[in-house]
């Protein structure tokens, strides 16, 4: 860089920008425009969800092109949350049928929480075994576990459905959570990568102090890996929350129906001619809310975890 | 890093020596029991059973009997199966083609313009929302009568488009909806790859007077090849398994235009209870995905030489 002479070239080198000032500006404007367009495309459906959910369903047709809520009302949210009377709901174009939103929300929370706690804990144990313990055949067993990643989910879904049915677990929480409660190959792989990177010295020091593996696992490995464990927990929670096909198959019953399945049912029950779009959008918005909140709180970690899955 | 690994190996070698031939076998097995149970009961056993089911006429209800390869013969002569393969391929090509290009552009823009984690978070948002929600929102946005997109098209004086109702539009529409859902995620994967390209490469390119465009084609893209290969490995197989969006929006219609293979298997198994036949079809899907995976891994290895 010291070889360069003249302010123009020096500036260029410092900015690592290869073209002249004038062109940089135009190029930058074009680049920013492209990025802003992409961001608008990303965000717009969410805005539209909000706008529709705050509209009066009866007025949507008349003001279909308006970017503000048509005849602003919280009626759709009241309908979804079961706060509106049948008359109120019918007046705003709802079906008047009762929606058990709180029940579905509770079911989703139960399923996602149980799956997350179980899967992360049991997979951490397995990952510890694969990463930090020495035993014959270890890498071969790990490889066999990993090959399960190759099996398309639908392939195991059919026999698993029969299994869950034969166990008499259809329409129970156990039936919904069991297949992912104990392990997924990805979770073991994810944690093993981190455990491999931990230094041996601390572990050996603990051993010299007389700590066994159980103690090392709980007192050393888990606290040292709180960041990747949290990341995995968030990813697992999101996946469990968003899952559709499996709970659709084994959890049709009202008492264990989760939000995604309920939304599907809601959609198929709305009349083809004039669906309650405002109500539907209010429901999707509330169903998406927990993930959005989780993301707002822990977003940086999730974003960075994407980098991990590509980088390693 | 390498020194650490070496000392780790020496240390663990010593530890293993002290603990004898079986090392930590007992404690290792104890730690493995829950996940090994999960693996055997919900992955290994169903996989074997799936292969067996494909050779039976199981209907979910009564006793099933072994019928050999009859299901596969029937499959070869099932026009709906071939149609579902064609539709799935069409979906994968549109979805992956558009998604890769858009995500690459998005990643480069993010990389060159901003370091904001907030913006990176924003592009990830669609990926975090359930497929069902994504499908419902776009079903509304693209509604023929009241959807805002058709309002705009109408306002521009063009003819309204029956996005979900037309045989020609349905699959591209569903493919693009899932591009929307995944483009931010894919962009962040590529973005991570971009960050691994050392700064001095760009500086050298700048000193040589290369334009931004030239730098992208001659420097960025070649160095990104391994990460692009990895991204394709991650996205293509997932793309074959499109189900939720179809199930919520078109249910395979109009006619059979969106009856993708995953949805067809689901229908056969759980609506027509043709379980053995559905299992046979999922065996074929398994083989196809295995083939795709092997081809992609080869590609990935071919790409590795560029990164060093």
SSE string of chain B, helix = H, strand = E?
Answer: HHHHHHHHHHHHH
CATH class (first level) name of the largest domain in chain A: Mainly Alpha
Number of domains of chain A: 2
Task: List low-confidence stretches of chain B.
Answer: 1-18
CATH homologous superfamily caption of the largest domain in chain A: MetI-like
The total count of strands of chain A amounts to 0
CATH class of chain B: Mainly Alpha
- Helix fraction of chain A? over 70%
Oligomer: heterodimer
Determine the number of helices of chain A (DSSP H or I, runs of at least 4 residues).
Answer: 16
| Name of the CATH homologous superfamily of chain B | MetI-like
Shape of chain B: globular
**How large, in whole angstroms, is the Cα Rg of chain A?**
26 Å
Number of helix segments of chain B? Answer: 13
Beta strand % of chain A? under 5%
Mean pLDDT of chain B: 86
Largest sheet of chain A: none
Structural class of chain B: mainly alpha
Subcellular location (chain B): Cell membrane
Family (chain B): Belongs to the binding-protein-dependent transport system permease family.
Membrane topology (chain B): Multi-pass membrane protein
Transmembrane segments (chain B): 27-45, 89-110, 122-141, 223-243, 275-295
């Amino acid at each position: 860089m010291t070889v360069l002479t003249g302010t123009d070239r020096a500036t260029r080198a410092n900015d690592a920008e290869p073209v002249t000032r004038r062109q940089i500006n135009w190029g930058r404007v074009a680049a920013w425009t492209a990025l802003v367009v992409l961001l608008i495309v990303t965000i717009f459906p969410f805005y539209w969800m909000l706008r529709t959910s705050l509209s009066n369903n009866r007025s949507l047709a008349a003001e279909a092109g308006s970017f503000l809520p048509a005849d602003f009302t919280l009626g759709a949210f009241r309908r979804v949350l079961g706060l509106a009377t049948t008359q109120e709901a019918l007046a705003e174009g709802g079906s008047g049928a009762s929606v058990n939103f709180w029940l579905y929300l509770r079911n989703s929370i139960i399923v996602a929480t149980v799956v997350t706690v179980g899967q992360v804990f049991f997979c951490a144990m397995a990952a510890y075994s694969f990463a930090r313990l020495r035993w014959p055949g270890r890498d071969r067993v790990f490889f066999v576990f990993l090959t399960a990643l190759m099996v398309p989910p639908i392939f195991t879904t059919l026999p698993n459905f029969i299994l869950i049915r034969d166990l008499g677990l259809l329409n129970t929480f156990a039936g919904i959570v069991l297949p992912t409660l104990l392990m997924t190959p990805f979770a073991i792989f994810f944690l093993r990568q981190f455990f491999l990177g931990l230094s041996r010295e601390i572990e050996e020091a603990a051993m010299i102090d007389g700590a066994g593996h159980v103690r090392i696992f709980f007192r050393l490995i888990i606290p040292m890996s709180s960041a990747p464990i949290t990341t995995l927990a968030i990813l697992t929670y999101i996946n469990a929350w968003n899952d559709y096909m499996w709970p659709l198959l084994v959890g049709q019953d009202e008492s264990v129906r989760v939000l995604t399945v309920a939304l599907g049912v809601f959609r198929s029950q709305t009349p083809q001619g004039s669906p309650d779009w405002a109500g539907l959008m209010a429901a999707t918005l509330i169903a998406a809310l927990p993930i959005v909140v989780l993301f707002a709180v822990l977003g940086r970690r999730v974003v960075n975890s994407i980098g991990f899955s590509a980088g390693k | 890093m390498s020194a650490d690994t070496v000392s780790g190996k020496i240390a663990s070698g010593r530890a293993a020596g002290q603990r004898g031939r079986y090392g930590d076998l007992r404690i290792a097995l104890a730690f493995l029991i829950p996940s090994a149970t999960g693996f055997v009961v919900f992955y290994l056993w169903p996989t074997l059973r799936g292969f067996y089911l494909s050779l039976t006429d199981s209907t979910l209800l009564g006793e099933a009997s072994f019928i050999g390869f009859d299901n596969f013969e029937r499959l070869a002569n099932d026009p709906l199966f071939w149609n579902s393969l064609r539709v799935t391929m069409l979906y994968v090509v549109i979805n992956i083609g558009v998604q890769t290009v858009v995500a690459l552009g998005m990643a480069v823009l993010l990389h060159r313009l901003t370091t904001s984690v907030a913006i990176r978070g924003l592009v990830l948002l669609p990926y975090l929302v359930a497929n069902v929600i994504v499908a419902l929102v776009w079903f509304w946005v693209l509604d023929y009568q009241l959807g805002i997109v058709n309002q705009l098209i109408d306002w521009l004086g063009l003819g309204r488009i029956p996005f979900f109702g037309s045989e020609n539009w349905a699959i591209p529409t569903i493919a693009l909806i899932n591009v929307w859902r995944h483009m931010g995620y894919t962009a962040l994967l590529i973005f991570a790859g971009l960050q691994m390209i050392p700064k001095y490469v760009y500086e050298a390119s700048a000193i040589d007077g290369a334009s931004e465009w030239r730098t992208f084609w001659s420097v960025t893209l070649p160095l990104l090849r391994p990460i692009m290969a990895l991204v394709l490995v991650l996205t293509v197989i997932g793309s074959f398994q499109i189900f939720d969006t179809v199930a919520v929006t078109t249910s395979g219609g109009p006619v059979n235009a969106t009856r993708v293979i995953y949805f067809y298997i689901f229908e056969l198994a759980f609506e027509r209870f043709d379980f053995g036949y559905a299992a046979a079809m999922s065996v074929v899907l398994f083989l196809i995905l295995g083939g795709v995976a092997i081809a992609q891994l080869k590609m990935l290895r071919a790409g590795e030489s560029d990164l060093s």
